[in-house]
Amino acid sequence: MEKTISIIGRKQNEINEILSSIAQTIINKSKSPGPDLGLLSGTMGEILFLHEYSKINNKYQQYIPENLDCLFESIEYGNVYHTYCSGLAGICLGIDYIESEKNTAYEHFDFVDDQIDEWLTGQLNKCITEGNYDFLHGAIGIGFYFLERFKAGNDRSEKALHHLLQFLNDTAIKEKDLIKWKNHKRKVNISLSHGMSSIIIFLLELYTSGFRSEYDVKRLIEGGVSFILEQEINPEVYHSYFPYTSVEEETDEIKGSRLAWCYGDLGVAVMLGKASGILNNSIWKRKSAEIMEFSAGRRTDDKIRILDAGICHGSAGVSLIFYNEFLKTGNEKYAEAAKFWLNKTLEYYKEDPDHFSRVSYHPVTEEYHPNNSLLEGSAGVGLVLLAIMEDTSDWSKFLLI
After folding, report:
1. Chain CA centroid to CA 85, Å
2. Which of 291, 298, 247 is nearest to 272 (CA)?
3. How many CA atoms within 13 Å lie on the side-chain side of 325?
4. I need a surface site. Which of 63, 96, 243, 282 has the fewest CB within 10 A?
5. Are 178 and 227 in contact (CB under 8 A)?
6. Using DSSP, how many helices (H) and how many strands (E) does the chain show?
7. Long-range contacts of 231-240 (CB under 8 A, 24+ apart)
8. What element of type H or E holds 194?
């Protein structure tokens, strides 16, 4: 709790007000879920927030079963999608997380029937055929679902994982010791949200899961990490260690990347930290720390581009990443950065406490709009505030951090 106090300071009452406001907004919505049921983009993320909030305010526990019932009913009526961000792959993972915390005797995924697995297998195969490996919207996200099913003892998930691993092995572009993947748009993207960093984290979890395959998973990881490290640019010139997508895609003009969960240095540093721990690589570990410490000092440069409070590309996401790193390392630089971006999040709330409209900024329309989701909206902001208050963020695994 001392760690929490040092970061929150005297903001406890303010944070409690925000959490209550977010919860009330969610439960005051129509009982029928909206068109988006997703873990990261819709109703499931809101339910996850209520679950986490009910741990410190148990009056909200009563709303979780009824919201889950409405979600199941909507799925049964055909409101169904497949992706990790917006569909069944993520929804099932979210429900399993909540149910496993509620009941120690619960058997993982006991609510999933053969029809769900068969349908998600078909959608995974479609993504593979299209060459769409995207974490949020393609094959890798569905792969995380089947990986968790495999860990829970479901043997049938092995076939789906084998097919995905075959796809990653066959589409890997190998150049000496380097490996890269091009997405369905034939672009090389190193980001956490849509690119190679998420592929490597998936392969790392597969590598440690006990999954057996004829493919050299370790080689794919090492080659992928090596390629990403080759994309490094001069942080003193570009204000970041890595470009937005990759050097290869920015041949006309190299552009530094923003400070965010979705794109840029933080996602790469998180990936390097995970890879260094699993494969015991001290060089990767030092590089991860170097990037994190540099990023912790980024507060005012014009390349940061933090305009809202949401997790995806806003202040709450940055605060969460630094706070998690602080818990792992005890490095006070990360605590200071987490506190700075936490305070920025609170400032966004103060500007419009009735609606919290600064939670989500749309870069195309250049306007703010209401959003209750986990990834870009108030449910995610609330989850970050809870994580910092309670010194724990088990749910953040859904963001690969």
Report:
1. 9
2. 291
3. 32
4. 282
5. yes
6. 16, 4
7. 231/190, 235/294, 238/303, 239/298, 239/301, 239/303, 240/264, 240/265, 240/295, 240/303
8. none
Q: Return the pLDDT at 34.
A: 72
Nearby residues of 59 by Cβ (< 8 Å), 6 or more positions away? none
Please report which residue ranges of 208-281 form alpha helices under DSSP H. Answer: 217-230, 235-238, 265-279
CA-to-CA distance for 65 and 255, rounded, in angstroms?
47
pTM of this structure = 0.96
Cβ neighbours around 336 below 10 Å, total: 17
Backbone angles phi, psi at 170, to 5 degrees: -75, -30
Instruction: From 144, 145, 81, select the one nearest 117 (Cα to Cα).
Output: 145
Residues 183, 168 contacting (CB under 8 angstroms) = no
Which pLDDT tens digit goes with each residue over 307-319?
999 999 999 999 9
Nearest CA-CA partner of 92 in 77, 78, 108, 76:
108
Classify 174 as helix, strand or coil: strand
Report the candidate in 374, 356, 372, 375 with the shortest Cα–Cα distance to residue 313. 375
Contact between residue 203 and residue 279 where contact means Cβ atoms under 8 Å apart:
no
Residues in the chain predicted with pLDDT less than 50, given as ranges, are: none
Radius of gyration of the chain measured on its C-alpha atoms: 20
Q: What is the pLDDT of residues 245-287, one digit of tens each?
A: 999 898 788 989 999 999 999 999 999 999 999 999 999 999 9
